[in-house]
Structure formats: structure tokens, C-alpha cells
Amino acid sequence: MINKLKIKNFKLKIPAKQAGFTVLESIVAIMVLSLSISGAFSAVQQSLSQSIIAKDEIKAFYLAQEAIEIIRNKRDTNQLSIISTGSGNWLDGISALAGDSCYFGKTCRADATGPNNIYLYSCSGSWDSCEILRQDSTTFLYNYDANDPTTNFKREIQIESINANEVAVTVRIIWTKGLIITREFKVKTSLFNWIRKIRE
């Protein structure tokens, strides 16, 4: 005898309370999802902002280093001239005379348009009196050419006398981020009359 298998159709009954998400649960889920997405966007935005700040700080460092190298190059050119001619001052054209652009107590700016074209200009007052740097759109070199677009950087130099054979050079870079945030980077180094050291 063959028994017939009977398959019963089971219906799963779900109580009315658990039938689906309520409107309130859906709103809470959407809020949690939107908060997590906005947190991720905020983190990305903050990291982009930090990368821009870091990029500007690196530019400021190299602009300060360039100014120090311009002054150092001028000092070394003077030293080599003294060696070859036997006369001159190691600070000629820098701060040897009261009329020099970077005389002690003055604020000045430096511009190098080429290896033999180094210029120092006096600014109108103390700190924050120099022009804003400009950047050549072809070579991307920073300069003070009125035909080039302005940047957000300002570079200033002050030299102070330590003694007859040593000066302190301070370079200050100021730049703005946005409309209200101003940042500053200062470097100070000493330059020496190395001919005197060699002769001693």
C-alpha cells in the first residue's frame, strides 16, 4: 500500500506589530545614515584643507630659504671681490652703509631674476611694509614684476649687527588662507665674515 504524502501549506503569520518599519524607525535610520555620510565628508574636507595648509607652509619655507641664499650669495660675491682686489666690505650692497637697502633696522625685500641678477630693495617701514610677491605664470618663479599676478605671500628681511664680523638675518614670510586667517613663518640665521676667519 502506498501512502500519499500530504504536503500542508504552512502560512507564516506575522503579528501586526512586526509587519514592517514604522515611519519613525525609517526617519531614525535615515538620520543615522546621513550623519555617518556627513562625518565622512567632513573628514575628507578637513584633510583637503590640511593639505592646502601644508602646501603653503612648504612654499613659505622655501621662500624664506631663497631670501637667505640671496643675502648669502651677495655676501660671498663681496668676499670673493675682496680676495681678488684686496679692498671692499663684506656687507657692500647689503648693510655696509646707511643708504643700503637692508641697512640695520630697515626692512627690505630680495629678488633674484637670475644667477647674476640679485636685487635688494628697501621697504617703506618696519615689518609688514613690503610688497606682496608675484609669480610668473610661465616659469612659476616668484618675483616683484608688476606684470605678473599677485600671490598670497609677502617676504620681508631684516638684518641686525651682532659684531663687526657677524650679522643676524631674519626672514619673515606672511600669507593668508581665505579672507581672515593670516599665517607667519620666521627664519633667523647668522652670517659671518669668513675672510677674517681664514686670515686668522
Secondary structure topology:
Blueprint: H1 23-85, E1 107-114, E2 117-122, E3 132-135, E4 142-143, E5 150-163, E6 166-177, E7 181-192, H2 194-199
Antiparallel strand pairs: 1-2, 1-5, 3-4, 3-5, 5-6, 6-7
Protein architecture, described:
- 34% of the residues lie in helices and 29% in strands.
- By secondary structure, the protein is an alpha+beta fold.
- Strands 1, 2, 3, 4, 5, 6 and 7 form a 7-stranded antiparallel β-sheet that branches.
- The chain is rod-shaped, with a radius of gyration of 34 Å.
- The model has no long low-confidence stretch (mean pLDDT 80).
What percent of residues adopt helix (DSSP H or I)?
25-40%
Strand percentage lies at 25-35%
Query: What overall geometry do the principal axes of the alpha carbons give?
Result: rod-shaped
Q: Compute the average pLDDT.
A: 80
Structural class: alpha+beta
| Separation, N- and C-terminal Cα atoms | 126 Å
Biggest sheet record: 7 strands, antiparallel
Find the count of extended strands (DSSP E, 2+ residues): 7
Oligomeric state as shown: single chain
Instruction: Report Rg.
Output: 34 Å
Low-confidence stretches: none
Which H/E pattern describes the elements? Answer: HEEEEEEEH
**How many helices does DSSP assign?**
2
Give me some keywords for this one.
200 residues, rod-shaped, single chain, alpha+beta, 7 strands, seven-stranded antiparallel beta sheet
